Description:
The chain is an alpha+beta fold. The protein has three helices and 13 strands, in the order αβαββββαββββββββ. It has helices at 2-15, 26-41, 77-97, and strands at residues 18-20, 46-47, 50-52, 55-57, 66-69, 103-111, 117-120, 130-137, 150-155, 158-162, 169-173, 178-181, 188-196. The two termini are 23 Å apart. 31% of the residues are buried. The mean pLDDT is 93.
Amino acid sequence: MQQAFDTLINSFIESKVGISENFLSSELSGSLKENLLHLHSLKNMLAAGTGNQAQVNQDRSVRGDVIYWLDRQHNNAHENAFFDVMDAFVVYLNQSCYTGITGYEFHYTLYETGSFYRRHLDQFRNNDSRQYSMIIYLNTGWQPADGGQLSIYHTEGNAQQIDPSAGKTVFFKSCELEHEVLLTHKPRMSITGWLKR
């Protein structure tokens, strides 16, 4: 695990966007994907909005994904195994980079065919608790023609394109980099969340 943590942190330090190809094991990634699909089949995933609890706006022309919040209280073995990884990562990140992270929040995310998320920042205007954004992709066999790339804007006109392939984890500061999810041509799955203080 430490090697995957180091890869994520070192690439973040080098380029403001950390990427690790093996942050989660393929077994855990596959189990989380199955769990997401099961929740979706039960219609437990809900349309996502923009903003926070103080101000939520649902606009499908801006954001088209459906989500389900992860929680240890669900007593789901796969979710809890994911939280165990995240607990270890937060301890390692705090010890190595003195980030002062005290918590996190994560949800399953599904973009169905034809959906997207317009360019945005992850940190709220009325709440700066989100410090780092993380996306863990669950899509096996993803091809560039499938669309759904994460586009991260380092400067105007300079966008980094990241394919959402299984096992890949992306990590960046929530207040710094605007980003968007491009139009997807097949269902696109991830766990998305934020490290907070």
